[in-house]
Specification:
Biased composition (Basic and acidic residues): 301-316
InterPro entries: Glyco_trans_2-like, Glycosyltransferase_2, Nucleotide-diphossugar_trans
Pfam families: Glycos_transf_2
Structural class: alpha/beta
Bound molecules: uridine-5'-diphosphate, magnesium ion
Radius of gyration: 25 Å
Transmembrane segments: 228-249, 261-286
Number of strands: 9
Shape: elongated
Largest sheet: 9 strands, mixed
Number of helices: 10
Keywords: Membrane, Transmembrane, Transmembrane helix
């Protein structure tokens, strides 16, 4: 069994992949650990696969899997963890934003008995708007989620074999790994590192993706939004009762009078809006159930290449 597997999801990373690979080998060589690198090509269209083929045929420690289309980073991480055979697994990005120099430090901490070693980045060099949004988001997450997620604690981490096996045993198809890492537990330690800009290429995370990712995070870990919907409904009902009492009192004291066109319209529109929002929340959960019930695989593999150097094509 190799001591370390490095799992790297890649989507359109042909510009940096070679630099990344060299940096990784340079960082691992002095440690003397036996390792393998598991690349997952997430349906890249820019020749990343060719680069990976070349790396894999030049070095038996390199293996890769290539998806039939883009399935997202979560699917890439899952495929990589399934490929990994090491006693410890490091998950990292291909764009050098996760500095390979930190891997020896992770191994060091792992040797002290930790099952999860998390590299937590600060937010240097990030736009002010994105920074503010992330801050607010993590505050929200801490309030609403049953699992603990630290700001800046991403996927860059080392997992012990038993932690990986545990993650692989979780069957859900909607994988929000930040939450899953926290859910599985085990002894976890983190250390901070300075955020670095991506070496080349562009980030695949833009506004809308981030928003959806955020919503996924909030919804995939509990049903608290449903509980909130019930609370909102109860409060509204209570205020309606109070308002009705007030009207009755008015009629009794001042006699019948029927203004109130504006109040009616406002009430109808406000209630309509709240109902639709709540239906949306319910729909979101129903959608999730539907999605899980289909039991589709997380990804479709086009090609894999193992240490034997022979390409194996799979169809599903
Ligand atoms: N990635 C992936 N599939 C995707 C998007 C991203 O495998 O659909 C990989 C990407 O190649 C990189 C890592 O996930 O290795 C992080 O992506 P990116 O740098 O775009 O995200 P950011 O660092 O901006 O959060
Ligand atoms: Mg990046």
């Amino acid at each position: 069994m190799v001591q370390l597997s490095v799992v790297v999801p890649c989507f359109d990373e042909s510009e940096v992949i070679d630099a990344f690979h060299t940096a990784l080998l340079d960082a691992l060589a002095p440690t003397g650990v036996s390792f393998e690198v598991c690349y997952v090509d997430d349906g890249s269209r820019d020749g990343t696969v060719q680069r990976l083929r070349a790396l894999a045929s030049a070095d038996p420690r390199v293996r890769f899997t290539s998806f039939s289309r883009n399935f997202g980073k979560e699917a890439g991480l899952l495929a990589g963890m399934r490929m990994a055979r090491g006693a410890a697994v490091v998950l990292m990005d291909a764009d050098l934003q996760h500095p390979p120099e930190l891997v020896p430090r992770m191994l060091e901490l792992h040797r002290q008995g930790y099952d999860q070693v998390v590299a937590v980045r600060d937010r240097t060099g990030e736009g002010a708007v994105r920074k503010a949004f992330s801050r607010a988001y993590y505050r929200l997450v801490r309030r609403f989620m049953d699992v603990e997620i630290a700001d800046g604690a991403g996927d860059f981490r080392l997992l012990s074999r038993r932690a990986v096996d545990c993650l692989l045993a979780l069957p859900e198809s909607n994988r929000f790994s930040k939450g899953l890492f926290s859910w599985i537990g085990f002894d976890t330690v983190d250390f901070a590192y300075r955020n670095v800009e991506r070496a080349a290429g562009t980030s695949k995370w833009r506004g809308r993706h981030l928003l959806n990712y955020g919503i996924d995070g909030l919804l995939s870990f509990n049903s608290r939004p449903l509980r909130l919907a019930i609370h909102a409904g109860l409060w509204l009902f209570l205020s309606a009762v109070l308002y009705a009492l007030w009207i009755v009192a008015n009629v009794l004291l001042d006699g019948v009078e029927t203004p109130g066109y504006a109040t009616l319209i406002t009430a109808i529109v406000a209630l309509g809006g709240i109902q639709i929002a709540i239906l949306g929340v319910i729909g979101e959960y129903v959608g999730r159930i539907y999605h899980e019930a289909k039991r589709r695989p997380h990804y479709v593999v086009r090609e894999t290449e193992g240490s034997t150097g022979t390409a194996r094509r799979e169809e599903r």
